[in-house]
Specification:
- The complex is a heterodimer of chains A (about 425) and B (about 160).
- Chain A is an alpha/beta fold.
- Chain A has two domains: about 5-235 and about 250-265, Aconitase, domain 3 (2-Layer Sandwich); about 270-420, 2-Layer Sandwich (Aconitase, domain 3), CATH 3.30.499.
- Chain A has 15 helices and 18 strands.
- Chain A has helices at about 5-15, 40-50, 75-90, 100-105, 140-150, 175-185, 200-205, 205-215, 230-240, 300, 305-315, 335-340, 345-350, 400-410, 415-420; strands spanning about 25-30, 30-35, 60-65, 95, 115-120, 135, 150-155, 160-165, 195, 225, 260-265, 270-275, 280-285, 295, 325-330, 355, 375-380, 395-400.
- In chain A, the strands form five sheets. Chain A has a five-stranded parallel beta sheet with strand order 4-3-2-5-6, sandwiched between helices. In chain A, strands 16-15-14-17-18 form a five-stranded parallel beta sheet. A four-stranded parallel beta sheet of chain A has the order 10-9-8-11.
- The relative contact order of chain A is 0.14.
- Chain B has a single domain (about 5-160), classed as Aconitase, domain 4 (Alpha-Beta Barrel).
- Chain B contains seven helices and seven strands, in the order βαααβαβαββββαα.
- In chain B, β5 and β6 (about 120-125) form a beta hairpin.
- The longest helix of chain B has 11 residues, at about 150-160.
- Classes of the chains: A alpha/beta (about 425), B alpha/beta (about 160).
- The interface between A and B is large, with 49 and 38 residues.
- The structure holds iron/sulfur cluster (SF4).
- The site of iron/sulfur cluster has 13 residues of chain A, from α4 and α10.
- Iron/sulfur cluster (SF4) binds near residues 65, 123, 299, 300 and 381 of chain A.
Chain lengths: ~425, ~160
């Protein structure tokens, strides 16, 4: 019986020839990514209690993104502690307010195919876009990794999600992700490993692939892998990373999948997830012209360079509706720099957008740009749980950057194809 | 010893358990906002020793460990659910909070008194007199619960080495 890519990576990390779903194995961790919220402020006191330090500082990537820039004394203290801990532990790969962890980590060349990696954040499956088995863990789990360099895993089944055909103008990977949430539900991934396959996926660029892997979290999967190919290798080389033996990390033709799902991109419509779940996604035409207060282009899912490009392609030469606000928080400082170079930021600002610094911003309600009581937001983020982006009575709709931008022009939820075609 | 039951539905997520807007607060204050968007009086009425029973995908969403942590802080001694969000499930055991998967969750209602045997997963519903079944916890996770969580476990293991 052949092995899936997930099984190959886990077997390697466990020091075994093969593994099978259901086995509980202990794996060596190649990379541990942590951020200011779930990281130092939580593990520092515990490490002190245990009297231990980080097993291998070179295998740790630390990023401040959730509380940046600080908004009050508490968040300033959290960031201070983060910086002190980085110095204490000799963490060289510390990116302080350079953007969101899931984007900065690959952007600085830290991820490559075949890695067994953990992140102290639920959207860590983003690493799967680069053929890495990466998954999210909590702070105490991370403590175990930081101290021992190992963690346990129950070898997951692999769910094959195959996409075929090309989608049309005004459609993006975000629409694919929301469509999957609506079809399979938020437990469709069953904490197993998803493999995204098919020609649609092969044709996506790395940023769009990241959106799909990222939102494997919304499907309740542990990881969301895409087999590495020339595009993966080119991206990794372009950021100074080392692709390694990437050819070895593909699923065998006779590998076993617990379930297979097939989707067609050809007739995919722009999707909008109504409050309070990504699984509430429907075609944009079925939502009605719901009024929105804040339009938000942000988050690891929705503010990468291509996401900003999508928004700018809709907003070029146009203005957002009177009395509304469009808030843009680029996913990283490198993306922001590139977007300035390409004239994207100018387009967005001309349209009336307010620009936030790179980071998580309002996405999880931790940072800047959050919602007041009863306010309604249409966001390019991944998650719209009740109360997530601010006051507990606020509401969030999710859509692609195209749809958010087109809706901002009209002040209510709108089909981006009407602006683009 | 029997426990009083709090009953919730499907998809109780981490933003409901530990809302982001209060995440900077000390744990005891954050705990006061646990579940408030669906039951504003939960935190003030829950008592030491109570158990939560819920439907599918309990704890789905974020990796924030405060989600199981506030439940512990409020005195919850176990969560029984049809299924759990994967990260929450790991977090709960790491903190010493047992998470029991049971398809019999429909046979337990709010305010029922139940007895849970962590080792076997056996649940006795005292109120209805029914014997119910929960899945047995994997051996490695039972070890964590017996140690009181991953930190005490590491503490004794690192000392032994
Ligand atoms: S942008 Fe949002 S989803 Fe992404 S890591 Fe930050 S808080 Fe989490």
């Amino acid at each position: 019986m052949g092995q899936t890519i997930a099984e190959k990576i886990i077997a390697k990390a466990a020091g075994q020839q093969t593994v099978k779903p259901g086995d509980i194995v202990t794996c060596n961790v190649d990379l541990a990514m942590i951020h200011d919220s779930g990281g130092p402020r939580r593990v520092k006191p515990l490490m002190e209690k245990l009297g231990v330090s980080v097993w291998d500082p070179n295998k740790v990537v630390l990023i401040s993104d959730h509380f940046t820039p600080c908004t009050d004394a508490e968040s300033a203290n959290i960031l201070k502690l983060t910086r002190e801990w980085a110095a204490e532990q000799g963490i060289i790969n510390f990116y302080d307010q350079q953007g969101i962890c899931h984007v900065v980590t690959p952007e600085r060349g830290h991820i490559h195919p075949g890695m067994f990696a953990v992140g102290g954040d639920s959207h860590s499956p983003t690493g799967g876009a680069f053929g890495s088995y990466m998954f999210g863990i909590g702070a105490t789990d991370m403590l175990g990794v930081l101290v021992t360099g190992q963690t346990w895993i129950k070898v997951p089944e692999t769910i094959n999600i195959k996409w075929s055909g090309d989608f049309g103008v005004g459609i993006a990977a975000k629409d694919m992700a929301l469509k999957m949430c609506a079809t399979l539900g938020m437990d469709g991934g069953d904490y197993q490993s998803i493999l995204y396959s098919g020609d649609t996926i092969e044709n996506l660029d790395m940023m769009e692939r990241m959106t799909l892997s990222n939102m494997a979290a919304e499907l309740g999967a542990q990881s969301g892998l895409i087999e590495p190919d020339e595009k993966t290798v080119d991206y990794i080389k372009s950021v100074g990373g080392v692709p390694g033996d990437w050819q070895n990390f593909k699923s065998d033709p006779d590998a076993n999948y617990s379930v297979s799902h097939e989707f067609s991109a050809i007739d995919l419509e722009p999707q909008v997830a109504v409050p309070h779940s990504p699984a509430n996604a429907v075609a944009v035409g079925d939502v009605g012209k719901d009024q929105i207060d804040q339009f938000y282009i942000g988050a690891c899912t929705g503010a990468k360079l291509n996401d900003l490009e999508m928004a700018a392609s809709v907003l070029k030469g146009k203005k957002i509706a009177a009395g509304k606000r469009l808030t843009v928080a680029p996913a990283s400082s490198r993306i922001l720099a590139q977007a300035i170079k390409q004239g994207i930021i100018e387009v967005l600002l001309e349209a009336g957008a307010g620009l936030l610094p790179p980071g998580c911003g309002a996405c999880a309600g931790y940072g800047v740009g959050v919602l007041a009581e009863d306010e309604v937001c249409l966001a390019s983020t991944a998650r719209n749980f009740q109360g997530r982006m601010g006051a507990s009575t606020s509401k969030v709709y999710l859509a692609s950057p195209y749809t958010v931008a087109a809706s901002a022009i009209r002040g209510h939820i709108s089909d981006p194809r009407e602006e683009l075609l | 010893m029997s426990s009083r039951v709090w009953k919730f539905g499907d998809d109780i997520n981490t933003d409901i358990l530990a809302p982001g807007i209060y995440i900077k607060l000390p744990l005891n204050e954050l705990a006061q906002h646990c579940l408030e968007s669906i039951d504003p009086s939960f935190a003030s009425r829950v008592c030491e020793g109570d158990i939560i029973v819920a439907g599918n995908n309990f704890g789905m969403g974020s990796s924030r460990e405060q989600a199981p942590q506030v439940l512990k802080e409020l005195g919850i001694t176990a969560v029984i659910a049809a299924s759990f969000g994967g990260i929450f499930y790991r977090n709960a055991f790491n903190l010493g909070l047992p998470a029991i998967i049971s398809k019999d969750f429909t046979k337990i209602a709010a305010d029922h008194q139940i007895e849970l045997d962590i080792k076997t997963g056996r649940i006795c519903n005292i109120t209805t007199g029914q014997d119910l079944v929960g899945e047995k916890i994997p051996e490695n996770l039972l070890t964590l619960i017996e140690a009181g969580g991953l930190v005490p476990y590491l503490e004794s293991n690192l000392n032994n080495n």
